[in-house]
Design a protein that fits this description.
heterodimer; A: Cytochrome Bc1 Complex, Chain D, domain 2; two-stranded antiparallel ribbon; 12 helices; 4 strands; about 60% helix; B: about 700 residues; Cytochrome C Oxidase, Chain A; two-stranded antiparallel sheet
């Protein structure tokens, strides 16, 4: 009987350990892929489902032990608690498959709430597994005691003897020889030897510390933080340029052109996410708003696509416009700039008063001609001074 | 030999025990509220009053748990165990009472002043200078009483628990005095004597060792008394006690700089912090091993006795967090954990698991003893045990998860070199984890209520034993040690020697790290363009400190690609030379602010402080409407400038007198700029000073001529 319980306990452990590792690993890879939401929930669901297996076995064993126990001792209160547990386990089984669709509840950030629900389910499963195992143990206890009496003292397990060995335990029966004779308010002190692995570990950690300091500050063979940073930046730069080389149409402020169609739609999405706090959803800001009105014909830093692109990319920090080049890719900035220029003349209500200079759109840009833009409707020139 | 009769006083331990449980409940409740605030900012109630914002509440929570809950727990153990271990009553009952009421008075003062915004801005040392002095006095009273008892003892050798109490007492005294060096500006306002990098080093030398010598070593002393008592087993190894006591107190003190890895702290100090943290693993584990091995042969009792159950989990949590701590001080791990929820999880494994469970176990053992009764319900105590364990798990797991999640999001780049996520995206994904964490904390607190009920019932069922009679022979002067006694028994017989040796042992690490950082110039290369704050900025900085912004915002950009891209050029040691106190922070619930200056316009800040979600949708920051009504405290400008100059900040002589003119001029400028944006505000409001400060942070270095 003891063996079965042990096996169960071990199987639970064996089950859980790699799952946790898988979970961590998956979070890792998922994030670098940039699609973490779905994957985290997926991993959680996997864990939840896998936990059902030990859950099932422990509950089976538990029920079996309970039946066995109640044949001998029947008390009403216990029966009720058993019935309740059975009910609860039913609920659990029923709930697990439903939960992933909890986002239909319409909570503000549904994916996150699914995560919460899944975590709660996993925790509940753990609790029940532990409860079942402990309770089973309790039910079986009388039987175990009998078995021990019948079989005599059990052989120590391999783990036990390993444990005794590495700690150099002396048998408790020989404790008397180790007594120091101290007694403080009845507290006696033995003088067991310090576990050998403790000493070995301590010495090893001291060696580690010496090597650590040596490597960083004497031989200077490991990079200190600034050096490390420079290496990281150089690598990033290399990777970036490699990537950009594969992209045929890299855009910057001198090559950007006005985009149309689907790109405007993409720009609209970006605008809704990043810009509305200061420029309002309409793009017209508001009286007293932080950013200027983007829907009128007046521009502080120029109203050409190239000017707008430049403004977004580098920002105008002294005016409170932040730089976006670290958050948005050049293509995204181009999409955003195009969307902003498409707002012209929308005349939203409650917009901010005009700021900057009137931008005239009559003269054909020489720059634009050079870059072969055919769409004449959109050809603009920069009349404002470049600052 | 003639036996002397004497009495152990149980009234003082009872008082401390009640205070411990009371403040524990308060501290944990505040923690639960603060946890919910992070998920639901409306709970800051900042529209109605400024007192309950997270930035003010969190220091009350940490101080209450450390100094009120654990502090009173330590004193309960000391006042119960020391007389019994030394066979003498406490030396002076009046001192005991002064100690008790003095400490409770300090706690009340602390709670009130912190909520009112009186803070030094240094974590776990937030209390202002009058309270610091009060703490020193009460600590000395405690020391005199303890040593008085030791000198009148009837037991020649000091037991290991007392070594820990003595070492803790002397080290806490040293840490508190050195870290609290500050120059008063007014009643309830002072500036740290140290600035920037030096202030950071002193602060974390203190902060780390507050954990070591307030939360760890006294509780080891507690364990060495109550665990063998409850298990009725002899302590496993006297030898191990000696080895781990001395190695622990010697090594612990060095590890402080591991709180400042990858910051502007000199590399050598960081490396020393890491190296000593690793060496700390085994000495810390010595306590765990001695505790757990003491239970050898008593494991059948552990299954049934709730007291032992609590002790076992407490000691295990201690082992886990003292292993985790050194791992967190490895640079590559620290890169992930620093500023993140990982640290929060780590300290709560320690606080809830080790300190919490150790205290609960002690109470379940002690209260029945004090009231000569049986514990009212073992079942309820067992339920508390399971509920508490569940609470810890529900607290810690989401925090670990959120830490990893936000780390991977923070450092994600698109192939074309842009940051994949904005800070606010990260905040929003971790909010659900904050909810689970808060639920975990609530569950833990429910367990405490079960304990309170159980203990009250226990007390009611018995009669309080005011004093216990005992008898022992007095010590005779002449003593020759038995031949087989080891060298250490000499130290155990001489309490003053033990005291002095402990002080020397803990002093070494501090001196070796602090002195070079203060004296060697190369450690903090100066930057010519870094200038002192203007009077208005200085006032703004004090508002920043008052509101506890450092609880959520760091001002220290580490040299990582994703931090530099997100926040700007990494921070340099020379930038902080006028920062009394430093405000590097230790947790980023909000973004780093080291280069916030001139990033946004004044009107952005104006709108953002009034309603953070208007400028950053999804933000969980509280709003600060009171800053738009309160006026800048211009009266203090004079003494603030004066204090700063005393500490070496180069304001010209006599600048105090005209500082307010400069202040008003700068304030007018900002108000004028805001007016152009259609924002009307009087120029003497606090928000103007805060905007001035925010717009200054981290900008000086940009004026440095390009090489």
């Amino acid at each position: 009987m003891i063996k079965t319980i042990k096996n169960i306990a071990i199987s639970i452990l064996v089950f859980c350990a790699p799952l946790l590792a898988i979970g961590a690993e998956a979070t890792n890879t998922a994030t670098s892929a940039g699609k973490m939401e779905i994957d985290i929930n997926f991993v959680l669901m996997l864990i939840a489902v896998f936990l059902l297996i030990p859950f099932y076995f422990t509950s089976k064993t538990f029920l079996f032990a309970a039946k066995d126990y109640f044949k001998k001792h029947i008390t009403s209160s216990k029966t009720i608690s058993i019935l309740f547990l059975l009910f609860a386990s039913q609920l659990l089984f029923a709930q697990s498959p439903i939960s992933p669709s909890a986002d239909t509840l319409g909570v503000s950030n549904p994916k996150n709430w699914v995560t919460i629900v899944l975590i709660l389910i996993i925790v509940l499963e753990f609790i029940f597994i532990i409860y079942f195992s402990l309770q089973t143990n309790k039910f079986l206890n009388p039987t175990i005691k009998k078995e021990i009496i019948n079989e005599g003292v059990e052989e120590p397990s391999t783990f036990q003897s390993f444990w005794e060995k590495i700690n150099s335990f002396k048998p408790i029966s020989e404790e008397g020889e180790l007594d120091t004779g101290h007694s403080y308010d009845g507290i006696r002190e033995l003088n067991n030897i310090t576990p050998p692995w403790f000493i070995v570990g301590f010495v090893a950690s001291i060696i580690f510390a010496i090597v650590y300091l040596y490597v960083y500050h004497v031989s200077e063979s490991a990079p200190l933080q600034i050096e490390e940073y420079n290496i990281e930046m150089a690598n990033a730069e290399l990777e970036k340029s490699k990537y950009l080389a594969t992209q045929a149409n890299s855009i910057d402020e001198s090559t950007v052109t006005l985009l149309t169609g689907a790109d405007i739609e993409s720009g609209k999405t970006i605008f809704a996410e990043k810009c509305v706090a200061c420029h309002a959803a309409s793009g017209g800001s508001m009286p007293g708003g932080v950013g200027p009105n983007l829907t009128d014909e007046y521009w502080i830093h120029g109203g050409d696509i190239k000017d707008v692109f430049k403004t977004i990319k580098y920002g105008w920090p002294e005016k409170g416009m932040i730089s976006w080049q670290d958050q948005l890719s050049p293509l995204q900035i181009a999409q955003l700039s195009s969307f902003i220029l498409s707002l012209k003349g929308t005349n939203p209500p409650n917009a901010k008063e005009p700021q900057g200079e009137l931008y005239s759109a009559t003269v054909v840009s020489t720059d634009s001609l050079k870059t072969n833009i055919v769409d004449t409707n959109n050809i603009k020139i920069d009349t404002t001074k470049q600052k | 030999m003639n036996q002397e009769k004497f009495y152990y006083d149980n009234k003082i331990p009872r008082l401390f025990a009640i205070a411990c449980i009371f403040w524990g409940t308060v501290g944990m409740l505040l923690g639960v509220i603060a946890a919910f605030q992070l998920a639901f900012p409306v709970l800051n109630f900042s529209e109605y009053m400024p007192y309950l914002t997270f930035g003010r509440l969190r220091p009350v929570h940490t101080n209450a748990v450390i100094f009120a809950f654990v502090g009173n727990g330590i004193f309960t153990a000391v006042y119960y165990a020391i007389p019994r271990l030394l066979k003498t009553p406490m030396w002076n009952r009046a001192l005991s009472l002064i100690h008790f009421w003095g400490w409770q008075f300090i706690i009340v003062c602390a709670a009130v002043t912190l909520l009112m915004g009186y803070t030094t801005g240094k974590e776990y040392a937030e209390l202002e200078w009058p309270i610091d002095i009060l703490i020193t006095i009460i600590w000395v009273v405690f020391g005199i009483n303890m040593f008085g008892t030791i000198f009148t003892r009837r037991e020649r050798h000091l037991y290991v628990a007392i070594w820990f109490f003595i070492a803790s007492w002397v080290t806490v005294a040293m840490l508190h005095i050195v870290n609290s060096f500050e120059i008063p500006v007014s009643f309830m306002k002072s500036y740290s004597w140290y600035a920037g990098v030096q202030d950071a080093l002193v602060q974390w030398w203190y902060g780390h060792n507050a954990v070591a010598f307030f939360l760890t070593t006294p509780y080891l002393g507690l364990m060495y008394y109550f665990l063998p008592k409850a298990a009725d087993r002899p302590v496993y190894s006297y030898r191990l006690s000696i080895v781990h006591f001395w190695s622990l107190i010697f090594l612990y003190i060095w590890a402080g700089p591991h709180h400042l890895l990858y910051t502007a702290l000199p590399d050598w100090a960081q490396s020393v912090g890491t190296a000593f943290s690793i060496m700390l693993i085994l000495p810390s584990w010595g306590g765990m091993l001695n505790g757990l091995f003491t239970l050898r042969g008593a494991w059948d009792k552990v299954r049934e006795d709730p007291v032992l159950k609590f002790f076992v989990v407490a000691v295990t949590c201690y082992g886990m967090s003292t292993f985790e701590g050194p791992m967190l001080s490895l640079k590559n791990v620290n890169a992930i954990s620093h500023y993140s929820d990982w640290t929060v999880a780590h300290v709560h494994i320690g606080a809830l698991g080790w300190n919490g469970f150790m205290t609960f176990g002690m109470m379940y053992w002690l209260i029945p003893k004090l009231f000569n009764a049986k514990l009212y319900s073992r079942k309820l105590a067992s339920a508390h045990f399971w509920i508490g364990t569940l609470g810890i798990l529900l607290y810690a797991i989401p925090m670990y998860w959120s830490a990893f999640r936000s780390y991977f999001m923070m450092k994600a780049f698109t192939p074309s070199g842009q940051l994949e996520y904005e800070f606010i995206d990260v905040v929003q994904t971790v909010v659900p984890f904050y909810v689970i964490r808060a639920v975990g904390g609530t569950i833990f607190l429910i367990g405490v209520f079960l304990m309170i009920y159980n203990l009250i019932k226990t007390a009611q069922s018995g009669d309080f034993v005011e004093s216990e009679e005992a008898s022992a022979a007095p010590l005779v002067k002449e003593y020759t040690a038995p031949k087989n006694s080891i060298w250490h028994s000499l130290i155990e017989r001489k309490p003053l020697l033990l005291l002095v040796l402990s002080l020397i042992v803990v002093g070494i690490g501090g001196l070796v790290e602090l002195i070079p950082t203060f004296l060697v110039k190369e450690n903090i290369p100066t930057i010519a363009s870094v200038k002192p704050y203007t009077p208005l900025e200085l006032q703004g900085r004090d508002i920043y400190i008052r509101e506890g912004c450092y609880n959520c915002h760091s001002q220290m950009i580490r040299p990582f690609r994703y931090e530099v891209t997100r926040y700007g050029e990494y921070s340099k040691a020379g930038e902080f030379v006028y920062d009394h106190p430093f405000q590097w922070g230790s947790k980023r619930t909000g973004p780093d602010l080291a280069r916030i200056g001139k990033k946004y316009g004044d009107s952005w800040h104006f709108n953002h402080m009034l309603e953070p979600t208007s400028m950053a949708p999804g933000s969980i920051m509280p709003s600060y409407p009171s800053m738009y009504e309160n006026t800048i405290d211009k009266v203090s400008t004079n003494s603030k400038i004066h204090a700063m100059r005393k500490m070496g900040v180069p304001y010209p002589d006599g600048y105090e007198a005209i500082a307010n003119q400069d202040l008003e001029k700068q304030a007018m400028q900002i108000t004028k700029g805001l007016k152009e944006n259609k924002i009307e505000i009087a120029s003497d409001k606090e928000i103007i000073a805060l905007i001035a400060y925010l717009q200054r942070i981290g900008t000086d270095i940009k004026l440095e001529p390009k090489k």
